[in-house]
Amino acid sequence: MSNASRKLTRNRALLGGLAGAAVLSAGGAAAYAEMTTTVNLTVDDKTSEVTTGAGTVAEVLEDQGIEIGERDVVAPSPGTALEDGDNVTIALAKPVELDVDGEESTHWVLATDVASALGEIGDRYADAELSVSRSASIGRDGVEVEVVTPKQVTVKVAKHPAKQHEIVASTAAGILSELEVDRDLDDKVEIKRPGRDKSLFGYAREVQDGDRIIFSHRSTKRETRREKVQPRTVRRADSSMFEDQAKTVDAGRTGIRRATYDVTRVNLEVVKREKVRGTMVRSPQPRVVVYGTKQRPAPAPAPTPSPSPAPVAANYASGSSVWDQLAQCESGGNWAINTGNGYYGGLQFSLSTWQAYGGSGYPHENSREQQIAVAERVKAARGGYGDWPSCSSSLGLPQ
Questions:
Q1: Once rounded to an integer, what is the mean pLDDT over residues 139-145?
Q2: What are the residues whose beta carbons fall under 8 Å from the beta carbon of 306, sequence distance 6 or more?
Q3: Domains of the chain with bracketed CATH
Q4: Three-state DSSP class for 194?
Q5: pLDDT at 6 over 70
Q6: Which contiguous run of DSSP H or E holds residue 354?
Q7: 38-86: per-residue pLDDT in tens?
Q8: Is 124 helix (H, G, I), strand (E, B) or coil?
Q9: Are 368 and 335 in contact, with CB atoms under 8 Å apart?
Q10: Which of 2, 44, 182, 298 has a CA between 20 and 30 Å from the CA of residue 398?
Q11: Comparing C-alpha atoms, which of 381, 386, 358, 387 is closest to residue 371?
C-alpha cells in the first residue's frame, strides 16, 4: 500500500472515532440531567440555588451538610420528594440568653435579628436599653442580651429635696450617673425598698420600681485651729483666815494651743472630729486661791431682847472713826454695798459672821452704826482687827 493510501485510512479511522465520542458525550449529558434536581434552598433568610442528585428534602440537607435539631423548622417536611424548581426553607432555632434587670432566662427563637427575637419572645422592651443593637443578627450559636428597663424611683441627693424620676438604669450607680451626680469612694448611697425593713448599701446594688435612693456626700479634711487652755486652780491654806473665808490672789492666765484635727463631714455637717496632734503656743498660768483654816470662836450669847424701838430709817452717814477708815478700804466707804460676791455692807461682813455676832437681816440693810456695833463685838471676841487682814494691815491696826 502506498503512503498516500495509508494516510487516508488513518484519517477515516480518526474521524470515525471523534464522531463516536460526540455521540457518547451527548448521551451522558442527557442522562445526568435526568438524574439531578435544581431547588431553591433558603436557610435563615439566605437563599441559594442548589443542583443535587438527592430525591428528598432530607437528602438535600444531608448533601449540603445541614444538621437539623428538634427545635428547627423545615418546609416542606424532610420526607418530601423534590422536583426541579422546588423551594426548601429552613429556620434554625437559636438560644437567646436574656437578662432583664438581673433576672435571667433562656428562650429559643427562629428570628435572625435581636428586635424580631424579642418580638417572638413576647416583649420588645421598647423603652429599655439593650446591651446589643436591636438590628444585630443572630447566628446559630445564639446571643446574650441584657435589658435595662425604666424605673420609677425617688432620689435624695445630700441636703436637696427628694425628687421622683423615671430612669433607665439597673443599679444605684447607674441612677446617679444618669442624674450627673458627682461621687467618690468616701460618699455613701442607701437604698430603701418598700416592704423591706433593712436598707441596702452600695453603688452596685440593683434598683427596682419604688426604691428610695439616698445619696450622702462624705468628706474628711485635716484642719488646724487655735484653742484656749483653761488654767488649773491651786489652793493654798492660810491659818490667819477663817475656814469660811477664801480669796483669789492670782487670777492666772489662759493658755493657747494649736490643735490639728481630722474632721469628717456628711452633707457639710460635722459628724466626727479626731485629734491628730496639739502644740502649746502659750502655757497657762495657774489660778491661786487662798482659803482659811482657822476656826471661828463660839458666838457670844445673844443679849436679852429689849423692846423693839420704833423703826427708823437706816443711817449710812460716814464719819472719821477707825471703822470708817476700814470701810473706806473694804468697800470705798459704801455702807449699803452688795456686789453679789458673798460679802455685804461697808465692812464686808459674810452673812455667817454677821448673824453669829447678833446682826439681823443682811449687813447692807442696816445703818452704819448698827454695822459698827456688830464689828465691835467681832473685834472684842477676836482681840483685834484680824477679820479684816488686808485693810487692817495697810492701816497699821493690830491683828
A1: 93
A2: none
A3: 37-91 (3.10.20.30), 94-148 (3.10.20), 150-216 (3.10.20.30), 221-292 (2.20.230.10), 314-395 (1.10.530.10)
A4: coil
A5: no
A6: helix 351-356
A7: 999 999 889 999 998 888 999 999 989 999 989 999 999 998 999 998 9
A8: coil
A9: yes
A10: 298
A11: 358
